[in-house]
């Protein structure tokens, strides 16, 4: 199908986007990479009056290592971050997880922040941000605020972003010495959305395990190192309110959390 | 700030090395614009939601889905379609390899796959079979079972490498 008609604007300054969002709010949509939004527009599942394209805003286009986090602006495409030479050292979890996002052709266009704003429960980037305890920066004409991942993701395609806000930056915590970062997922075919995805941050005395694709948002849990791992994974699996859908049953999802979780933590893949 | 694009606008861009322009509504998908306004019917349209890869073209050198872009977004950009690959009467090395290895049957998926390969082989001139299959996961082919496609891509990569070595030795 073809999208319903809309007006289109392609500003070159962030301040112009914020002014447009303040004026049009609910009736406007941001388009970043378009790799999720265009399909939704083509199927007419959303019919905005105004489309605000942020692809020509240079000031949103940066990857900046800070002392505590890696800052990634809303203009940065997934392929750019993945091929950024410092990634494996700065945020190794991303280097492991990002090749799972769609295909190289969709990563060429899709943005890092777009995936976070979209908030698909099985998307890799929201899971990484939640597991690492990172945050997003939201800006509007009213001001600017930062929101931690766990508060930002609120349900299927639902976030704490208000209609007049632009997600301008994401901050991924920098890797810590002596900590291991692991990722794995199961999908129908490589590049399809994950049925279950797992991210693990393994430190000397604690393990943080993030689970995507099971609850209505990514969820991270702390497990103690000397805890009964199988029992802890089973509790985690049951706590996520898994649902049946066309891809898999709730029971299968729980089993994947147990099995993939054990493998990822004990054997490293 | 640039003016809001109302119903119809002129899109000026470079298509396969030549300056071109055409009319587009703000909602016109890039794939439809290329086919209907510029006659680049080598751009095939399958699913219109980014899954099948048939509509893949290069925008500023990068392989992207033209069904997931708007025509107005290529204003001032460089677009390449499958029509850019062959000379007057000679197919590109990639196309010839596809022919040798029976990498196509109906050909519906082929144009998109070729354009992905152009971008991919630039970045990864010596891919492994696993890498080629990973790159192809972004394309659906209902005829070939992919084996011929994988062979063709590996063959052309090998051929280019050998040629380069020969050139270096001259
Ligand atoms: C075939 C295919 C397979 C895919 N597989 C996966 C996968 O396995 N895993 C995965 O995670 N994703 C997958 N995706 C989706 C991924 O490619 C998208 O890039 C991502 O979900 C959205 O990013 P985008 O930049 O394309 O955003 P867009 O599609 O432009 O926007 C998505 C939504 O976020 C909003 N938005 C975007 N940027 C901002 C911003 N800065 N501020 C406020 N709102 C904003 C938009 O208004 C829209 O509602 C797939 C897509 C395709 C086509
Ligand atoms: S038509 Fe664009 S990916 Fe299928
Ligand atoms: S050759 Fe027919 S779909 Fe690929």
Key structural traits:
A: five-stranded antiparallel β-sheet; 14 strands; 31% helix; 26% strand; B: 170 residues; Ubiquitin-like (UB roll); DNA polymerase, domain 1; five-stranded mixed β-sheet; 5 helices; 5 strands; 36% helix; binds flavin-adenine dinucleotide; binds FE2/S2 (inorganic) cluster
Flag low-confidence runs of chain B.
none
- Largest chain interface and its two residue counts? A-B, 38 and 35 residues
Major sheet of chain A: 5 strands, antiparallel
Bound molecules: flavin-adenine dinucleotide, FE2/S2 (inorganic) cluster
Strand content of chain A: 25-35%
How many individual β-strands of chain A?
14
Helix percent band of chain B: 25-40%
* Number of helical regions of chain B: 5
Integer average pLDDT of chain B: 95
* Biggest sheet details of chain B: 5 strands, mixed
Could you give the distance between the termini of chain B?
55 Å
Strand order of the largest sheet of chain A: 4-5-10-6-7
Distance between the termini of chain A: 41 Å
Level of helix content of chain A?
Answer: 25-40%
What's the CATH architecture of the largest domain in chain B? Roll
Verbal overview:
- The complex is a heterodimer of chains A (269) and B (170).
- Chain A is an alpha+beta fold and 269 residues long.
- Chain A contains eleven helices and 14 strands.
- In chain A, the strands form four sheets. Chain A has a five-stranded antiparallel beta sheet.
- In chain A, a hairpin with a 3-residue loop joins β4 and β5 (69-73).
- In chain A, α10 runs antiparallel to α11.
- The longest helix of chain A is centred in the C-terminal third of the chain and has 18 residues, at 250-267.
- The mean pLDDT of chain A is 96.
- Chain B is an alpha+beta fold and 170 residues long.
- Chain B has two domains: 8-84, Ubiquitin-like (UB roll); 93-169, [2Fe-2S]-binding domain (DNA polymerase, domain 1), CATH 1.10.150.
- Chain B has five helices and five strands; from the N terminus they run ββαβββαααα.
- Chain B has a five-stranded mixed beta sheet with strand order 2-1-5-3-4, with helices on both faces.
- The longest helix of chain B has 23 residues, at 147-169.
- The radius of gyration of chain B is 17 Å and the shape is globular.
- Chain A binds chain B through residues 1-13, 16, 31, 34-35, 38-39, 41-43, 50-51, 53, 55, 79, 99, 102-106, 108-109, 189-191, and chain B through 1-7, 25-27, 29, 32, 48-50, 53, 56, 62-65, 67-70, 72-73, 75, 116, 119-120, 134-135, 137-138.
- The structure holds flavin-adenine dinucleotide (FAD) and FE2/S2 (inorganic) cluster (2 copies).
- One FE2/S2 (inorganic) cluster is lined by residues 104-110, 141-144 of chain B.
């Amino acid at each position: 199908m073809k999208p319903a008609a809309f007006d289109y604007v392609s500003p070159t300054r962030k301040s112009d986007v914020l002014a447009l969002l303040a004026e049009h709010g609910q009736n406007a949509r941001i388009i970043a990479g378009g790799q999720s939004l265009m399909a939704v527009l083509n199927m007419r599942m959303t019919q905005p009056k105004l489309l605000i394209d942020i692809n020509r805003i240079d000031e949103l286009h940066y990857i900046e290592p800070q002392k505590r986090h890696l800052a990634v602006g809303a203009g940065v495409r997934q392929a750019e971050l993945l091929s950024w030479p410092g990634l494996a050292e700065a945020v190794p979890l991303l280097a492991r997880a990002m090749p799972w996002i769609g295909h190289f052709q969709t990563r060429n266009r899709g943005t890092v922040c777009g995936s976070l704003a979209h908030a698909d429960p099985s998307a890799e980037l929201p899971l990484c941000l939640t597991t690492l305890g990172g945050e997003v920066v939201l800006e509007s004409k009213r001001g600017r605020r930062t929101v931690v991942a766990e508060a930002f993701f609120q349900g299927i395609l639902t976030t704490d972003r208000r209609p007049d806000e632009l997600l301008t930056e994401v901050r991924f915590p920098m890797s810590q010495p002596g900590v291991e970062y692991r990722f794995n997922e199961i999908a129908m075919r490589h590049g399809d959305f994950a049925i279950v995805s797992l991210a693990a941050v393994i430190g000397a005395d604690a393990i943080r395990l993030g689970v995507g694709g099971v609850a209505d948002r990514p969820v991270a849990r702390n497990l103690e190192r000397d805890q009964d791992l199988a029992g802890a994974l089973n509790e985690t699996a049951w706590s996520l309110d898994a649902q049946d859908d066309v891809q898999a049953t709730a029971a299968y999802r729980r089993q994947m959390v147990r099995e993939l979780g054990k493998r990822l933590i004990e054997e490293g893949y | 700030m640039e003016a809001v694009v109302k119903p119809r606008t002129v899109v000026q861009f470079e298509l396969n090395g030549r300056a071109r322009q055409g009319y587009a509504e703000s909602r016109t998908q890039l794939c439809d614009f290329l086919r209907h306004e510029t006659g680049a019917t080598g751009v095939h349209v399958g699913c219109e939601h980014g899954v099948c890869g048939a509509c893949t073209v290069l925008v500023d050198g990068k392989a992207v889905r033209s069904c997931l872009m708007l025509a107005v977004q290529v204003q001032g950009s460089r677009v390449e379609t499958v029509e850019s690959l062959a000379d007057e009467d000679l197919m590109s090395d990639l196309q010839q390899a596809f022919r040798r290895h029976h990498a196509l049957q109906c050909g519906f998926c082929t144009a998109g796959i070729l354009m992905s390969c152009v971008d991919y082989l630039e970045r990864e001139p010596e891919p492994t079979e696993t890498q080629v299959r990973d790159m192809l996961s972004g394309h659906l082919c209902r005829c070939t079972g992919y084996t011929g496609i994988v062979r063709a891509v590996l063959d052309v990569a090998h051929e280019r490498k050998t040629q380069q070595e020969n050139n270096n030795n001259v």
